[in-house]
Fold F-box domain-containing protein.
Amino acid sequence: MDRLPTEILEMIGTFVDDKPTQRALTEASVKFHTVFTPRLYFSITLPSIWTPVHFDLIRRLCSSPELASLVHHFAFRIRGYDTYGEDKLPPRRKEYKPFIDELVAALCELGCDEWVWWDGLESLHKDAWACATLIKLTRLTRLKVALENYDISNLTETYLARIWRLAALRPQPTVHAAPFQYLKDIFLFQNRSQFSAQTFLTSQHILYPLCFPALNHVSLCGDFDYWDYEKDLEKCLSHDKFMTINCPVKEVTIWPSEYCNKIIKWFRESVNLERLNLVISQVEREIPKITVSDYSRQGLLMVKDTLKSLSVQLDERLRQGLRERGPECYRLKMSIFRLSSLKDLCALEHLSIPHVNLTGLPDQRTYEGHPNSFIDHFPASLKTLRITDIGFHPITALLLDVVGIVKERTSMPSLESVSLVLKKNRLEAYLLRWCLLFNGIGCITTPR
């Protein structure tokens, strides 16, 4: 499809007027973004390798405020200062000069450094083009950014951090519509196929967006580096706006979970954080040895008064390994939650957690195993309890604990349901289903 001349694509667009066909064609080729009606601009994803079509798409968006206001979801990749690889740059850059002049003027109005942005845009640096577009997307609600091959040895701010810092901390509103006023969801992730010592998510990408008034959910996936945390925090706290802002974030997703303690510090001023999702990931193993760490406990205690929902899950690689070989064969970084730390979450209403986090690994147990100990360490405010990734052999002991929870409702008067999710076959779940039919509470399921 991308090999067809633009004239033929425009001819196709002239005779296609039904929305499903237009959307299908748009997904087949980015060229159709410049052919069809503006309603198809709702969601735009820029690939890793660009062609002149992508530069034309950016120019079209930035040159038309009406068109840019239709974009609600935007995704792109930050590739730092590496080479362009297989990118096909436009052959005639002079055509972009009037557009670049206009865009740099808008960036300077926000307070950006004219030379930095002019150099990046004029040299067709993809990071500069993608990030500069953000100030034009006045109705953007969801932003997804992938970090690829970013050289952490270069201590300068990324283009994305420059935009966010000035948009968040500018002293007064600009003449044009302020950017990021409708941004609700930010997803920052490191390309898992490119995990390396020189690829990090840093605090400069996270601290500044906390000033955006509509921000609700922040998802962070990858390796994190904290060399710049204190410096960036000091820079933020030097602005009155950051000191007085009430962080609006209600939900945070962290993958891998061992960074929970550090990342929650970024949200420590928030009185709104209600939902925390942690994904436990397998780390590279050199020897079959289990390493148990309680990285997340301190992070939980920081938000114990506001947290209403806690979801802990294993990523698919780790789940598959535990299912096939058991934990003894893997060197893990596990966030093992002491039940006492769960007890301290006085506002917690919904809990989803793998069984291994409650029982501990073979070399360390987190509770003595009798029902009273199991019950007494859950918060009284709990309404729903979901225990996942349960093996067949420990299910009997776990059922005794759950039956004790059902019978002793005085310790958790608000409890409405208990769900057990097995990692075995459906027959075993069917044989055990009757065990939880006490007082109409509880169920056993298996993953589909």
